[in-house]
Design the sequence.
């Protein structure tokens, strides 16, 4: 946080958030932490603020923006989303056989979603959240609009800043990311890496397969 504060007087700065991870931390712990950091940025920085992330981090960038609007905060000036996981419901993920080049499996995605929501049968983590109270696991499911952000209302999504979305055409999340792009009526700039897989833009600094 000190580094980010120093950078606020520079042309730009980058602040990375080490939010708590599942399965130890369940929804909405990471969202609450990200929102607090965003509020800190609003208070300390007068420049434009962009939120970004890849995969689940992309989901968090969107959900944090939606939550900011819900609390009548200033919305981010932009979003940069790399292979964002926009829908955690099982039906939103196609069979992995159709995307054999991707290293992400449908079964793995289901496991990660259950861990994020606290639906794992074996609870290998503390039952208490940061406030020391017990979370009601049944309260949240994969259809919650701050969990599966593509299920937020069209009105809410169109109120977000127009995002830059980078997706690999060969990744298992490709269909849901394109559906998310279409739901916000094409306001986003969609960059498709023709031979890309999940988070190719992060894994491979130099890409020559076009968009």
Sequence:
């Amino acid at each position: 946080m000190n580094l980010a504060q120093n950078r606020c007087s520079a042309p730009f700065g980058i602040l990375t958030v080490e939010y708590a991870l599942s399965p130890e931390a369940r929804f909405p712990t990471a969202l609450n932490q990200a929102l607090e950091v965003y509020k800190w940025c609003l208070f300390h920085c007068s420049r434009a603020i962009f939120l970004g992330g890849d995969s689940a981090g992309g989901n968090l960038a969107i959900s944090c923006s939606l939550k900011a609007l819900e609390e009548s905060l200033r919305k981010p000036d932009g979003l940069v989303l790399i292979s964002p996981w926009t829908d955690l419901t099982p039906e939103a993920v196609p069979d992995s056989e159709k995307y054999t080049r991707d290293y992400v499996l449908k079964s793995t995605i289901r496991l990660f979603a259950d861990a994020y929501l606290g639906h794992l049968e074996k609870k290998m983590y503390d039952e208490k959240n940061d406030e020391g109270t017990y979370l009601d696991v049944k309260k949240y499911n994969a259809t919650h609009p701050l969990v599966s952000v593509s299920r937020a209302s069209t009105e809410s999504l169109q109120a977000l800043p127009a995002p830059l979305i980078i997706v690999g055409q060969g990744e298992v999340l490709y269909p849901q990311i394109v559906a998310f792009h279409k739901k916000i009526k094409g306001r986003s700039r969609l960059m498709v890496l023709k031979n890309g897989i999940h988070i190719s833009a992060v894994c491979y600094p130099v890409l020559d397969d076009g968009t």
Observations:
- The helical segments are 2-7, 29-44, 56-70, 106-117, 154-158, 174-183, 200-203.
- Confidence is low (pLDDT under 50) at residues 1-7, 121-138, 206-211.
- The longest helix spans residues 29-44.
